Amino acid sequence: MRASGLTRFHAMPSATGGIARLVAVRLRAAGIPLAPLLSRAGLTVEQIDDPGVRLTVQSQIKLLEIAAEALHDDLLGFHLAQDYELREIGLFYYVLASSDILADALHRAERYSGIVNDGISLQARIGKEASIVLSYIGIDRQSDRHQIEFWLMSLVRLCRQLTNRRLVPSRVRVVHRRSKTPPEFRSFLGCEIEFGSSVDEVVFPAAVKLMPIVSADPYLNQLLTKYCEEALAHRPESGVATLRSNVENEIATLLPHGKASAGEIARRLGMSNRTLARRLAAEGLTFSEIQTELKTDLAKRYLRDGDLPISQIAWLLGYREVSAFTHAFKRWTGTAPRQSRAQGKFVAAGKRVRTAGPGAQARPRR
Q1: Nearest Cα to 161, choosing from 92, 75, 93, 76?
Q2: Strands (DSSP E) along the chain, which ranges?
Q3: In the chain, where the domains are located
Q4: Which pairs count as long-range contacts for 220-227, CB under 8 Å and 24+ apart, including other chains?
Q5: From CA 13, how far away is CA 56, in angstroms rounded?
Q6: What pTM was estimated for this model as a whole?
Q7: pLDDT for 5-64, tens place per residue?
Q8: CATH number of 243-342
Q9: Which residue among 87, 142, 215, 301 is buried most deeply as judged by most CB within 10 Å?
């Protein structure tokens, strides 16, 4: 039996819940009853209304997905990132805003991002370029696109506000897939996004690392750094990924290339095929079971995107023929993918569905 989202990890990573509370504001403004949607995400109104309560990262991700459907907003994470007050982030924001130069701010962001969300690891790679890389800890990355888009857009906004410059990234890459770069993304970023990448990152030209922070205050920064260190010291250890989550993340990356075999996954995880099978068995799992359930989840998620042709979805899941994917999907769900999409099971009401023939290129269109 598949482990539930709330039991896959020994200690669930948590977040301050700022994104979830922004979502709640939108839902209330739209006149959508909040309690039923929160319940589906494993949350309560009391938790949302108390800013001092941390939420599990998994519940926040689930709420974003549910709210995007309820609001008919496929770009919810992006839209949320556009108009909130960055100072609401609190201590994390101010320790960056009081830094001397952008490179210093990014290094502090790397160290203290766990105060805001300990399910996301932020890495600042400052060299020939200034790169900000996001990685999930203890979370199935394939389950999320709204939160990661919120983070990436917020980081760009943050860098611009700290330097008072409209910084334009050299490139932006994300793991999840969209059929093309939405015009709003392109307008905001000033560049295209590479979807279906192996990494989530924003990269700026090298020159930005030495840009001064307009609100730099070395005395305040020293004091806030002390507070951040104390906050880190009091954070409970969490976000320990299970073997299952590691296997799922590796499978999802390799599926489109037809290389998601147990042997290849084992090699990437630094173990033999036999060891992988034995360790999964100890958790009551098999590689085949994990792969099938992941394919089912991904198929349903891709079908929600009306811009993704069935032929692309088949390719993304490792099928070279649409017929093979159709047979597999019917075996998993009892319904053909085109029928599921036509019935509106996975597409928001009123959204137009486009399909393409089997010759369509399974690459993001730009």
Answers
A1: 93
A2: 14-15, 55-56, 120-126, 129-136, 171-173, 193-194, 200-205
A3: 75-233, 243-342
A4: 220/94, 220/98, 221/95, 221/98, 221/99, 221/100, 224/91, 224/94, 224/95, 224/98, 225/95, 225/108, 227/91, 227/95
A5: 6
A6: 0.69
A7: 333 333 467 788 999 999 999 999 999 999 999 999 999 999 999 988 889 888 999 999
A8: 1.10.10.60
A9: 142
